[in-house]
Design a protein that fits this description.
This protein is 29% helix and 23% strand. Helix 4 runs antiparallel to helix 6 (191-200) and helix 10 packs antiparallel against helix 11 (319-335). The chain has eleven helices and 16 strands. It is α+β, with helices and mostly antiparallel strands. The relative contact order is 0.18. The strands form five sheets. Strands 6, 7, 8, 11, 12, 13 and 14 form a seven-stranded mixed sheet that branches. A hairpin with a 2-residue loop joins strand 9 and strand 10. The chain is globular, with a radius of gyration of 23 Å. Among the domains are: 44-80, no CATH class; 124-345, Dipeptide-binding Protein, Domain 3 (Dipeptide-binding Protein, domain 3), CATH 3.10.105.
Length: 377
């Protein structure tokens, strides 16, 4: 409720909401003038949107009314490019001055070794993982556990994607203060253990075709991936690993929107993901993805203890009590093999040192173009 005379806005929540300041500060949302929302973008940053060419460019101009100091550029053009090598080529040719997230290891290494370029890297708040669909064959505990044992995330993070990710086993990155050192990796990499778990559960190859069966049916996992942030490389590596222990796996790389639609429709066994886990400085929203009462619950995972702890977390204000709940919730997800964690994404900026200064990337995606990025002196 807005009171223009008093200059106040009153919010009424349906339940206790302990992270309300964080939610109100969430950059995805803003109070806007609905009279112009269809034609203009309203914000408080140093630059204004002048024009948008869908899927091609965004043109920014200086915000003459910026509240926090001088704005260094009169205009900025953002080019929307998914292909990592194309980004690197554009930077090397001088067509652009700054690029974010070059994910091709060879290109990134070449830029790091060249003094004409500055590469800024930081541990982001992004989790790289693959969700399981519990409504299909992956509702079988032994099959999920075997997959966890079989996948060598240390090698995949450090070799397959050449350090673009830091390996880990919990849904919250080890760089964040959420008790990672208190957790136990229930299913550390162990190929022999993976085979042992499958055999003990009767998930075996009965006809000699090289593939194991579950309930009399050959296992062939429908694994969806999209190419953002090396996710397709993870999917291919996981598929090769699973094939080696007799688990069939077909990887389909789709554009993000198509993959998301298939995820919502349940048309998958596994699907890759890369998401910010603390967008409001609080992991509760992300942890809600595993809450069975959430209509958007990924993979239809359900655990009664987890649900009860999540509901308690939403109404707990004490930071120590919050941490205890979050640690226990993480361990439940690990023990249940609720999702396949690959690791934690390391975000990068690469810039031309003779053109740009101050191009240091931040852990949160929303704050890329700031007044700290300025023309080189």
């Amino acid at each position: 409720q807005a009171d223009d005379e008093a200059g106040t806005v009153t919010l009424v929540c349906g339940s206790r909401t302990v992270n309300l300041p964080g939610i109100l500060a969430y950059p995805w949302y803003a109070i806007v003038d609905t009279g112009v929302i269809d034609s203009e973008v309203i914000g408080t940053g140093p630059y204004c949107v002048a024009s948008v060419q869908e899927n091609t460019t965004v043109n920014l101009i200086k915000n003459e009314y910026y509240w926090n100091g001088e704005v260094p550029y009169d205009s900025i053009t953002i080019y929307l490019t998914e292909d990592s090598s194309t980004k690197a080529m554009a930077l090397k040719s001088g067509d652009v001055d700054l690029v974010e997230n070059i994910t091709t290891a060879s290109d990134l290494e070449e830029l790091k070794e060249n003094p004409d370029y500055y590469v800024s890297t930081t541990a982001s708040m992004r989790l790289g993982n693959s969700y399981f669909n519990f409504n299909g064959v992956l509702g079988n505990d032994a099959l999920r556990q075997a997959i966890q044992y079989a996948v060598d995330d240390e090698t995949m993070c450090n070799v397959t994607v050449a350090g673009m990710y830091t390996p880990g086993y919990s849904v919250l990155p080890s760089s964040l203060p959420y008790g990672y050192d208190q957790l136990t990796d229930t299913y550390p990499y162990d190929m022999d253990k993976a085979v042992e778990v499958l055999d003990a559960a009767g998930i075996v190859d009965t006809n000699g075709d090289g593939y194991r069966e579950l309930d009399g049916e050959k296992i062939n996992l429908n694994y969806l991936a999209y190419s953002s942030r090396n996710l397709d490389e993870f999917a291919q590596a996981v598929a090769i690993t699973l094939e080696s222990i007799g688990i069939g796996c077909t990887v389909t790389v789709q554009d993000y929107d198509t993959a998301l639609a298939n995820q919502s429709a349940g048309n998958f066994d596994m699907i890759t993901s890369n998401a910010i886990v603390v967008p409001t400085g609080d992991p509760a929203g992300f942890l809600g993805n595993f809450y069975s009462g959430n209509s958007g619950a990924y993979g239809i995972y359900a655990n009664d203890e987890y649900d009860a702890l999540y509901e308690q977390l939403l109404e707990t204000a004490d930071s120590d009590a919050q941490l205890a709940l979050i640690v226990r919730m993480q361990q439940i997800l690990i023990d249940d093999a609720a999702t396949l964690v690959h690791g934690y994404y390391n975000s990068t900026f690469a810039s031309r040192v003779f053109a740009v200064s101050g191009a240091d990337i931040t852990p949160i995606d929303y704050y890329w173009i700031t007044t700290k990025i300025q023309p080189a002196e």
